[in-house]
Amino acid sequence: MRIDSTHRHWLLTCLVIGAMASVIYLSYASGGPGPPRGGSVPGLIFGCSGYALMIYAALMGLRKKFPVWRVGRASTWMRGHLWLGFLSFPLLLFHSGFAANGALTYWLMTLLIAVIVTGVLGALVQHYLPELMTRLVPLETIYEEIPKIRQQLRAEADRLASTLLGSAGGTTPDFVWGDRSSKPAQFQVIEIEPEVGERIREVYRETIYPFLMDPDTVKNECANKEQSAALFAGLRRCLPNAAHHFLADLENICEEERQLKCQRVLYRCLHGWLLVHVPLSLALIVLGGIHAVMALWY
Q1: Where are the alpha helices (DSSP H) in 66-203?
Q2: CA-to-CA distance for 265 and 272, rounded, in angstroms?
Q3: pLDDT of 167
Q4: pLDDT in tens, 52-82
Q5: Domain ranges within the chain, ordered by starting residue
Q6: pTM above the 0.85 mark?
Q7: Are the CB atoms for 280 and 112 separated by under 8 Å?
Q8: Is the pLDDT of residue 171 over 50?
């Protein structure tokens, strides 16, 4: 979710409400014995308003879980979750009088700050990371399809290596898992010296093959764009021009695999913060409800 001009109305509204709440709080604090307590009329208004905004922010999770519920647009819920959730912070601070009296209120204050901080960080991540992903991963694909695409890339790399080494008069590599029966319609024998063919076989077996098998953990020349370019440039100098398109395809496969790896990392950053924000938010809602019941009871 990008924070653009469509958020201006929400921002201005929250600023106005926050300014009005600040005036009420300061007026009450300056005209009385001190800041409003949680049980005072202003304190109760601040507390109920802030808790209601937190409930609204939490309901967005249900709205996303059940998209068939046509209760407002998803974009509206997202903007409301961001800005009204942030507005609940000063209201609840006014409710507490900026003091944590007791263990429960202390943990509520701690949870509130943690939820707001993780929410702000999440908003910044969602604002900047999609643009960064577009720039770093021009071959971005559907995240759930990455394992299938990786399997296809490995099979294609196997076919290329098998064809290149087979056309050179050598045996096909014993580590390929692609369809060995599928060869190009026009098979051209490429004159490659045995030493060069063995060098190609060694590079594929010890560098390209391990990287394509486990690109998330293998750290070799193929995992780095500059080192990969140098590696393939060296291979091109050893091979005739007729074999260069095989190397170009293999190099493109390694590049696409690097982008898939980058996409996985950025995707986890884009959504990983929710693993912290959501549990903290639920804990805050539950403890806030307990705090309200205990305050009314006693």
Answers
A1: 74-96, 103-136, 146-167, 194-203
A2: 10
A3: 52
A4: 999 988 887 666 665 555 666 777 888 888 9
A5: 5-139+274-297, 143-270
A6: no
A7: no
A8: no
Contact 261, 147 (CB under 8 A): no
Q: Is the pLDDT of residue 173 over 60?
A: no
CA distances from 191 to 31, 165, 176, 197 (A): 95, 10, 22, 10
Task: Burial-class residue 103 by CB neighbours within 10 Å (0-12, 13-18, 19+).
Answer: exposed
From the list 57, 104, 232, 53, the residue with the least C-alpha distance to 160 is 232
What was the pLDDT predicted at 186? 42
Residue 137 — left, alpha, or beta (φ > 0 → left; ψ -120 to 50 → alpha)? Answer: beta
Alpha-carbon distance of 162 to 179, in angstroms, equals 10
- How far apart are alpha carbons 139 and 252 in whole angstroms? 11
Reported as a single tens digit per residue, the pLDDT across 13-37 is 999 999 999 999 998 888 766 677 7
H/E segment holding residue 279: helix 274-297
Using N-to-C axis directions, what is the helix angle for 194-203 and 225-238, rounded to 10°?
A: 160
In the chain, the amino acid numbered 155 is A
Q: Which residue has the higher pLDDT, 100 or 67?
A: 100
Q: How far is CA 88 from CA 51, 111, 161, 173, 223, in A?
A: 7, 13, 60, 64, 46
Residue 197: its pLDDT value, please? 84
Burial, 122: exposed, middle or buried (Cβ in 10 Å; 0-12, 13-18, 19+)? buried
Asked whether 15 and 249 are in contact (CB, 8 A), the reply is: no
Tell me, what amino acid is at 68? V
Angle made by CA atoms 273, 274, 279, in degrees to the nearest 5:
120
